[in-house]
Design brief:
The chain contains four helices and 13 strands. By secondary structure, it is α+β, with helices and mostly antiparallel strands. It has a single domain, classed as NADH:ubiquinone oxidoreductase Nqo5 subunit (Beta Polymerase, domain 2, 2-Layer Sandwich). The strands form five sheets. The protein has a five-stranded mixed β-sheet with strand order 7-8-11-10-9. A hairpin with a 2-residue loop joins strand 12 and strand 13. It is globular and about 65 Å long.
């Protein structure tokens, strides 16, 4: 399983940075607001969450700050640093100076970084963003937790600090103005060894109530590949997170049974990481020997 390939790894700046300590389970989960001012959900307690902002003016101010954070240029000391989702690549399969006459040796792929979207986003994206900002203020989710938003290929993507991903998912599922009840897909992607925060978890959410679709994305470093589990919010995340762990080695604290799902339990490594060796053995075919994958495109 691989995620979309044109997204933005994100990192917090030195000032106003977002904590990146992973939290497991659903201890930060909140339900939706009822008419009486309490919070309730089929899976969350009915009491009002601690620290919830009840003052309307405070909520408006927090929403305004969050709105500015979505568009703040990267030059601002309080905005997250944004890196390219890849590095410049030349040739094919990483082979250089090989005498390749196939034409692949002339390929050049530039690193790509999607441009942050500006209002109006178009369609229902603005309405969803307004509802999300209001839900953040109501649940005391700090504006810095929403790192960046982009619109590409008719999809809107919200980049979220990993320590707040569970709270975002509860809000998106339970808030009456959002109602993203279905996690259509949770997938992983590895942008390669030279990319900061190379490992991403991509959440594709669908609102069956409003017939809407959005994406969330969390980026982590390979040496700290931990993202809180979404199983408490979306039970179908169970086997999707297992597959991400199996293929990419991203750990999900709070998962009820994080074991391999495709590879044998005693398998070493994670096959869809970009630094995983291709390996293989030569294969004979019609009297010719086809080299193993890690030996192909090696020319004398």
């Amino acid at each position: 399983m691989t995620g979309p390939s044109g997204d933005v790894p994100v990192a917090t700046g030195p000032a106003g940075s977002v904590p990146t300590t992973s939290t497991g389970g659903n201890e930060d989960a909140k339900g939706e607001r009822t008419a009486a001012g309490s919070y309730s959900s089929v899976d969350t307690p009915g009491e009002k969450p601690s620290g919830t902002t009840s003052d309307a003016s405070a909520q408006g101010e927090s929403s305004a700050v969050a709105e500015r954070a979505l568009h703040d240029p990267t030059g601002s000391p309080n905005s997250p640093a944004v890196f390219a989702t890849g590095v410049e690549r030349t040739g094919m399969f990483g082979v250089h100076g090989s005498g390749d006459t196939s034409g692949y040796g002339l390929l050049v792929t530039e690193p790509y970084t999607p441009v942050p979207a500006e209002r109006p986003y178009g369609g229902y994206f603005d309405e969803v963003t307004d509802a999300l900002l209001a839900a953040m203020a109501a649940r005391s989710i700090p504006p810095q937790a929403l790192l960046r938003t982009t619109v590409a290929n008719k999809e809107i993507t919200y980049y979220v600090a990993r320590s707040y991903i569970t709270q975002f998912l509860w809000a998106l599922r339970d808030d009456a103005s959002l109602r993203f009840e279905l996690a259509s897909s949770i997938s992983g992607v590895d942008y390669g060894e030279k990319v900061a925060r190379r490992l991403h978890v991509v959440y594709e959410l669908t609102s069956m109530t409003y017939r809407r679709h959005i994406r969330l994305e969390v980026a982590v470093d390979a040496d700290d590949a931990n993202v809180p589990s979404a199983v408490a919010v979306y039970p179908t995340a169970d086997w999707q997170e297992r597959e991400i762990w199996d293929m990419f080695g991203i750990n999900f604290p709070g998962h009820p049974g994080l074991t391999r799902i495709l590879m044998p339990d005693d398998w070493l490594g994670h096959p869809q990481r970009k630094d995983y060796p291709l390996g293989g053995i030569p294969v004979e075919y019609k009297g010719a020997e086809i080299p193993a994958p890690d030996q192909r495109r090696s020319y004398s």
